Amino acid sequence: MANTDAAFGLRPLAKLGGNYNSCGFTTYAVKSGNNSGNIFEGAVVKLGSDGYVVVAGDSDTKILGVAGGIEYTAADGKPTFSNYFPTTTATQGSADIKIRVYDDPNQLFLIQADGASGQTSIGMNADVVGNGNGSTVNGISSGELDSSTLNTSDLMLRVVGVDTDPDNEDLTSDHANLIIKINDHFYAPNSAGV
């Protein structure tokens, strides 16, 4: 049966091993007026050299985590809570924008693959494709695992399993939902930082 094509970026799912899964996040800052691109819920993010969170490129390294929504006071004084940060958004008084980031290096996520993956993809690494894309209506990322990059090289994500959702578990077909861990994490023990 063909898998359902409905990309959603990365969704927190569980923790690696027997760790308690709180799906907790840490609050970081996005600079007012940031023009590095939209940051959608479910998008992979990193710290910029200025200490502010920015959307990660499809093959970036030293990944901070996954965006989980933002809050700020708009330039007109309106409190705003949203699934995504529209690029170049200015805040009242140029105050920082608060962004929730799922940043635990042992967090497992669910992501849809853009192509077929096969059983051999389990344990392999891959990058994302379309990480900076998403819906401006619901604020959800449309990023996917880039199946064409699956190999043993040191890439952004590591595939650790396949979801058991009957609508998206066929590894021989495009768009299977895979369980992944961020492979090149900012807080991993051997990470060198920004």
Structure description:
With 194 residues, the protein is mainly beta. 0% of the residues lie in helices and 31% in strands. It contains no helices and 13 strands. The strands form three sheets. Strands 2, 3, 4, 5, 6 and 7 form a six-stranded antiparallel beta sheet that branches. Strands 1-8-13-12-9 form a five-stranded antiparallel beta sheet, with no helix packed on it. A two-stranded antiparallel sheet has the order 10-11. A hairpin with a 5-residue loop joins strand 3 (44-47) and strand 4. The model has no long low-confidence stretch (mean pLDDT 90).
Give the overall average pLDDT.
90
Strand content: 25-35%
Rg, Å, rounded: 16 Å
First-residue to last-residue Cα separation: 43 Å
Which stretches of 5+ consecutive residues score pLDDT under 50? none
Biggest sheet statistics? 6 strands, antiparallel
Class by SSE composition:
mainly beta
Give the CA-based shape: globular
N-to-C order of helices and strands? EEEEEEEEEEEEE
Helix content: under 10%
What's the count of strands?
Answer: 13
- Counted by DSSP, the helix tally is 0
In short:
By secondary structure, this protein is mostly beta strands. It has strands at 11-15, 26-30, 44-47, 53-55, 65-73, 79-82, 97-102, 107-112, 125-126, 128-129, 144-145, 157-162, 177-182.
Topology (elements, then pairings):
Blueprint: E1 11-15, E2 26-30, E3 44-47, E4 53-55, E5 65-73, E6 79-82, E7 97-102, E8 107-112, E9 125-126, E10 128-129, E11 144-145, E12 157-162, E13 177-182
Antiparallel strand pairs: 1-8, 2-7, 3-4, 3-5, 5-6, 5-7, 8-13, 9-12, 10-11, 12-13
